[in-house]
Design brief:
The complex is a heterodimer of chains A (358) and B (418). Chain A is of the alpha+beta class. In chain A, 25% of the residues lie in helices and 22% in strands. Chain A is globular, with a radius of gyration of 24 Å. Chain B is of the alpha+beta class and 418 residues long. The model of chain B has no long low-confidence stretch (mean pLDDT 97). Chain B has a 5-stranded mixed β-sheet. A 4-stranded antiparallel β-sheet of chain B has the order 2-4-7-6, with helices on one face. In chain B, strands 1-3 form a two-stranded antiparallel sheet. The chains are: A alpha+beta (358), B alpha+beta (418). Strand 4 of chain A pairs antiparallel with strand 6 of chain B.
Chain lengths: 358, 418
């Protein structure tokens, strides 16, 4: 199409949410008084005006086909008030004012195969990334891992069995999208990239790739008379940071790209300051289509936490109380040399005290 | 449609109680009348099965955008497109949702209709960066879909080294803890940088996230370059009758074990008559006691926000939490909001000037030091910015007297204006 015929974009930016909000939310904006949790997946918020809004939360498959979107809309129109929102973890929330609508709405969602829950001290939906379905650098899938795990954790989504809320996240590479979480299942590469020297000079901007390496292990080289890059394999930490800017430096491997599990990441400021997750398990096979080994470890950690933690303790609070030696003892996970940090600032993670639990 | 690819591994993801994305994609493949859509679903299933078999991804990036913009699209070309030609071009379109991810079912249907017309019919609410992800279409239909939805109020999100789509919590619209107007903060910030969002030209990504209270449901401290968190600076509100009701319902020991002793600064005590005392000057607004007793305890009236800078994930120097930059900022008048936007402008300008290629704002601060950053954006230091003062004496301090004088002068100015 000729340039002059192209449509100019309307740079409207982020749209105004007020046009999509339930009228009772607009009316009471900034004037909510308290909330109650009548049952898993249901919230009742009460405003200073006396108005109420009820929320019913349900888990979905996140990758939604148009049929599923329309099914959710049908339920929202027939059983709710036509107002919805999504949580940060891709749960859908239906907002209604009439409490009599709540049970029929829950019934309709369950009838259609959705799972109601994910509030308060449950295991809510795993936040996840794109994986094999759409990412350009993934070592594993995301949707499949999450589907497999949530199948096993569906009861925990629908019940309040946990000491406090549990947020789980997955990540299909070592460097990018998956965030901090109470339990994170992330890719951990264990071998340096395999380099296709025939392609590097044609595909990669070499100084950019050299600069991307966190440990300065990449340097320019000549192989068979062609300019390329080489990796000092003694220095390489196998993070895969060079792969996105230089696809001929293939980091993903069917055997050597494995899963690692990290715990204790907590974004909230409640009780303690926000915390980063810590490595607890690695060497877990990346095993589609069901990833049973990773799920077994996650369930073991959840079970131990459920049995051992006090009310309101998140996983990091619980471990802060019982200590890491007991965490490894209770979960049966091995403590190895890889658990001892050696990255910058690592000294702060060493125990410089006589604080030992016996 | 051509023959369906066999997908024995993916088929295993149809069993179990959790809703199955595979069942959804199969519905498009098997039931959708449009050969473009059922073909796309078939090709996608074929390639995904191939990924499951070989444990490798087969998408590569490229350069696709819409007319007038430079970003917003995640281009995907298949490396195995000759085997799965139906989905060889499978770009994602990132679209900015409204703050708090609110929709009406009417609007959700309208978006689904447009996407069915121009794309694969697969969408995600929402990706990790906060955008709606419309997954899977050709370069040509990327423009068609955008032209369609842009006419009824939707604009592309950020992708690449640019200001990214913002994220906000459910906020004042429903939550009793909210101390801020997330809607206004989010839109004033992000929509001030529309040009920087659509035309990637920054050192790397820059994210705004807004949480209405320190529970930080948007994970803003760790997951954004510019975190805005609602808070209050006067006394928390206590309904002592509700405290008594709580004790009566749950017992005194439960209150002691779950509220009093969990306070990180020992700012709460239980009195003989089952009411509580709070030392507000010691309270760090962690939210724990309010979370446990939301009927009895509420944020105060003198609300505002805390702003933290520089959170990010691992690449390149390791994970960083944001650092407090503004301990408290009132957001009442339009001028207050403009001051916040100006702060964001100053930070992005300074970082655009001084950040290295692919260096997040927090990494730049780590490299140059917080004090140099503060001087660059002309923000005064504040003890709220640190956990504790310096522990190492390796520093040249021959400007001490001048610096001490600045502190006293600033104190005097603040006393005069209050």
């Amino acid at each position: 199409m000729a340039l002059e015929n192209m449509r100019q974009p309307i740079e409207s930016g982020c749209p105004d949410a007020l046009q999509y909000m339930h009228p009772v939310m607009l009316k009471n904006f900034g004037n909510w008084k308290y909330h109650e949790d009548p049952e898993p997946g249901v919230l009742r918020h009460v405003a200073h005006s006396g108005d109420e809004v009820w929320t019913v939360r349900a888990g979905t498959q996140r990758i939604l086909d148009v049929y599923t979107v329309r099914k959710l809309c049908d339920i929202g129109d027939q059983f709710a008030d036509g107002y919805i929102r999504f949580t940060i973890r891709s749960n859908i929330e239906f907002l209604v004012t009439d409490p009599a609508k709540v049970q029929p709405l829950i019934g309709a969602l369950r009838e259609a195969g959705f799972i109601v829950g994910g509030t308060r001290n449950s295991v809510t939906m795993i936040s996840h990334t794109q994986g094999f379905l759409h990412c350009d650098i993934p070592a594993t899938d995301a949707s499949g891992v999450v589907k497999s795990m949530m199948d096993e954790l569906a009861d925990e989504f629908q019940n309040w069995n946990m000491p406090n809320r549990v947020h789980i996240a997955t990540s299909c590479c070592q460097i990018n999208c998956g965030g901090q979480a109470d339990i994170a299942i992330n890719i951990q590469h264990t071998k340096p990239p395999r380099i296709n020297h025939d392609l590097v000079s044609a595909v990669c901007e070499r100084p950019t790739v050299v600069a991307r390496c966190p440990v300065a292990a990449i340097r320019p080289a000549q192989v068979n008379g062609k300019p390329t890059l080489e990796v000092d394999e003694k220095k390489c930490i196998c993070c895969g940071a060079c792969f996105p800017p230089c696809p001929p430096m293939q980091i993903n491997h069917a055997e050597h790209s494995q899963l690692a599990i990290w715990v204790g990441g907590n974004h909230s400021n409640a009780r303690s300051k926000p915390s980063f997750q810590k490595l607890v398990a690695a060497g877990i096979p990346n095993n589609p289509p069901r990833w049973p080994e990773a799920t077994a470890i996650v369930k073991k950690i959840l079970h131990t936490y459920k049995e051992d933690a006090k009310d309101w303790e998140r996983i990091n609070d619980w471990i802060d109380r019982i200590g890491w030696p007991r965490f490894f003892e209770k979960t049966g996970l091995p403590f190895t040399k890889y658990h001892v940090d050696n990255w910058r600032g690592a000294r702060k993670s060493l125990n410089a005290s006589a604080h030992i639990r016996f | 449609m051509a023959d369906k690819y066999t997908t024995p591994m993916l088929d295993e993801l149809e069993s179990g109680p959790w809703p199955s994305f595979i069942t959804g994609i199969k519905r498009l493949r098997d039931d959708h009348p449009d050969s473009r859509i059922n073909g796309l679903a078939n090709g996608l299933m074929g390639q995904l099965e191939h990924s499951y078999e070989t444990r490798k991804g087969y998408w590569k990036g490229g350069t696709v955008s819409v007319f007038g913009y430079g970003g917003g699209i995640i281009p995907r070309f298949s490396e195995v497109g000759s085997h799965f030609p139906e989905s060889k071009e499978f770009h994602t379109i990132r679209v900015q949702p409204a703050p708090g991810n609110y929709y009406t079912t009417d609007m959700l249907r309208k978006l689904a209709d447009s996407w069915e017309k121009w794309g694969s019919g697969l969408q995600t609410f929402h990706g990790q960066t906060g955008s709606i992800m419309f997954i899977g279409t050709t370069t040509e239909n990327t423009q068609n879909f955008f032209d369609d939805i842009n006419e009824y109020g939707w604009d592309l999100g950020g992708a690449g080294p640019c200001v990214r789509t913002g994220m906000s919590c459910v906020g004042s619209a429903r939550c009793e803890m909210s101390c801020a107007n997330e809607q206004k903060i989010h839109r004033m910030l992000v929509n001030n940088f529309t040009d920087d969002l659509h035309r990637p030209a920054l050192p790397y990504k820059f994210k705004f996230k807004v949480s209405g209270c320190p529970n930080d449901c948007q994970n803003s401290i760790e997951r954004s370059d510019f975190a805005v968190i609602g808070t209050w600076r006067d006394e928390m509100k206590i309904d002592q009758d509700e405290v008594k009701n709580y004790v009566e319902a749950k017992g005194r020991q439960y209150l002691v074990d779950n509220v009093i002793t969990r306070c990180p600064t020992n700012a709460i005590s239980l009195k003989e008559d089952d009411t509580i005392d709070v030392i507000d000057g010691d309270c760090v607004r962690c939210m724990h006691c309010l979370n446990v007793m939301c009927k009895a305890l509420s944020p105060g009236d003198d609300k505002g926000v805390t702003i933290l800078i520089g959170g990010k994930r691992t690449l390149k120097i390791g994970d960083l939490m944001g650092t407090v930059l503004v301990p408290f900022m009132k957001l009442d008048s339009h001028e207050d909001y403009e001051a916040m936007v100006e702060l964001a402008e100053n930070i992005i300008d300074f970082w655009a000037e001084n950040g290295l290629e692919h260096e997040r704002c927090g990494e730049m601060i780590e490299r140059i030091g917080l004090v140099n950053f503060l001087e660059g954006i002309e923000i005064d230091i504040d003890p709220n910015m640190v956990n504790h003062p310096r522990e190492c004496s390796y520093v040249r301090m021959d400007g001490w007297d001048e610096e001490a004088e600045k502190w006293f002068k600033r104190k005097a100015e603040m006393a005069a204006t209050n």
